């Protein structure tokens, strides 16, 4: 817990104070009078409960370059956080014509759903879903693959890099365009991520001229990725839903043969976070774990039910 608290404090040290300590973060859509205002929790001890500067940069990149998203039929944001700014922007610029899925982990999903409802019109919201996605675990509920993946400020801890890349591979096909916005902080973490990029993706950095957005920090970079034409090795594949259920049986079985719902698991986590908060620790929840290395399924299609509408 001390390591997580230290990592959280280091991240906060690089952020603009207003971003994290205001109750709302507001961004204007072009020259129009429309404003997207997402609510955050500046008192929370969970990293995803506040908006990070890279997500604002990616939001503005999307809304100022809508031509990059024309014709896309499916878009997914990983690690959307409480605000889901990139997912909201993509729903706006595609005028409700694309299926948009915003994902994160349990503690921030209520915030994410509220912000989606508050900032999208009825038409824009018709094809938008909010779903839970733990990096490195099966993605059958998400109805992958997607035409576009969006990530903002997701490269923050070395242990999360491999699960993140596993999910990027599982959610994409070879024509999927992936945009990753991130702020340069920890050189070792960034180097680990770049190593995976070089191995599995063709990538380029979005030119600074295309990122001339309001208040952008020079330390924020945006990468455009596409999968390489190579077979995904066993250790990078994500297992089937049944394999994952067996692998994580301890999370679902309470000992008397009854399955425990994911919400119960997150209730336990939130109790732990509350306990840590009482002791003054700052906790960051990683969206992924690398416990599925031995799973072998790399099928990107799925039959998942749509239970995540917002």
TrEMBL record:
Listed Basic and acidic residues bias regions: 244-255
Short name of one Pfam family: Methyltransf_16
Residue ranges, annotated region (Disordered): 238-267, 279-310
InterPro entries reported in the protein's UniProt record: Methyltransf_16, SAM-dependent_MTases_sf
Top-level taxon of the source organism: Eukaryota
The name this protein goes by in its record: Uncharacterized protein
């Amino acid at each position: 817990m001390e390591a997580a608290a230290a990592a959280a404090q280091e991240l906060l040290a690089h952020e603009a104070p207003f971003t994290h300590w205001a109750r709302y973060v507001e961004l204007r859509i072009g020259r129009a009078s429309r404003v997207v205002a997402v609510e955050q929790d500046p008192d929370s001890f969970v990293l995803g409960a506040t908006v990070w500067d890279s997500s604002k940069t990616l939001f503005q990149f999307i809304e100022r370059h809508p031509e990059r998203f024309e014709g896309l039929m499916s878009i997914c944001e990983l690690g959307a956080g409480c605000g889901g700014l990139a997912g909201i922007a993509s729903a706006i610029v595609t005028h409700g014509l694309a299926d948009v899925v915003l994902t994160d982990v349990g503690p921030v999903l209520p915030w994410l759903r509220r912000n989606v409802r508050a900032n999208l019109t009825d038409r824009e919201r018709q094809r938008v879903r909010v779903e839970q996605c733990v990096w490195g675990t099966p993605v059958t509920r998400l109805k992958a693959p997607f035409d576009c993946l969006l990530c903002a400020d997701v490269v923050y801890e070395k242990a999360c890099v491999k699960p993140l890349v596993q999910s990027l591979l599982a959610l994409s096909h070879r024509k999927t365009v992936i945009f990753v916005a991130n702020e340069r902080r920890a050189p070792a973490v960034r180097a680990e991520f770049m190593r995976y990029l070089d191995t599995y993706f063709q990538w380029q950095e979005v030119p600074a001229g295309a990122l001339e957005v309001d208040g952008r920090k020079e330390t924020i970079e945006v990468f455009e990725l596409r999968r390489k034409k190579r077979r995904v090795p066993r250790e990078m594949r994500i297992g089937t839903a049944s394999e994952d259920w067996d692998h994580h049986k301890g999370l679902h079985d309470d000992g008397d043969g009854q399955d425990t719902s994911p919400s119960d698991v997150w209730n336990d986590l939130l109790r732990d976070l509350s306990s840590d908060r009482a002791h003054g620790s700052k906790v960051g929840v990683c969206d992924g774990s690398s416990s599925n290395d031995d799973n072998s399924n790399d099928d990107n299609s799925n039959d998942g039910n749509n239970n995540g509408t917002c």
